[in-house]
């Protein structure tokens, strides 16, 4: 699957060790050979502690 800048994405952000999951939506703002940067919509709220514990997020293109 190829990600393109300005693509809309939606899906679940799953945290390891049974810490739960959250639905997220956003727009891809940058694509490099090693990563994809996503700007989450303002309605998506993820606790800062959970973000700081993660080293990477897996996303899929498309709709839920």
What does this protein look like?
This protein is 9% helix and 36% strand. It has one domain (8-53). It has one helix spanning 48-53, and strands at residues 8-14, 21-31, 36-40. The longest helix has 6 residues, at 48-53. The chain is globular and about 30 Å long. The mean pLDDT is 74. It is built from one helix and three strands. It has a three-stranded antiparallel sheet, with no helix packed on it. The protein has 64 residues and is mainly β.
Could you outline the blueprint of secondary structure elements for this entry?
Elements: E1 8-14, E2 21-31, E3 36-40, H1 48-53
Antiparallel strand pairs: 1-2, 2-3
Q: Whole-number radius of gyration?
A: 12 Å
The total count of helices amounts to 1
Q: How much of the polypeptide forms β-strand, as a percent range?
A: 35-45%
Largest sheet: 3 strands, antiparallel
The helix fraction, in percent, is under 10%
Gross geometry: globular
Overall number of strands: 3
Average pLDDT reading: 74
What is the CA–CA distance across the termini? 16 Å
Q: Which spans of ≥5 residues are poorly predicted at pLDDT below 50? A: none
Structural class: mainly beta
Order of helices and strands: EEEH
């Amino acid at each position: 699957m190829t990600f393109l800048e300005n693509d809309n994405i939606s899906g679940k952000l799953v945290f390891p060790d049974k810490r739960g999951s959250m639905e997220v939506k956003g727009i891809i703002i940058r694509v490099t050979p090693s990563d994809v940067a996503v700007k989450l919509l303002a309605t998506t709220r993820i606790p800062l502690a959970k973000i700081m514990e993660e080293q990477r997020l897996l996303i899929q293109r498309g709709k839920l």
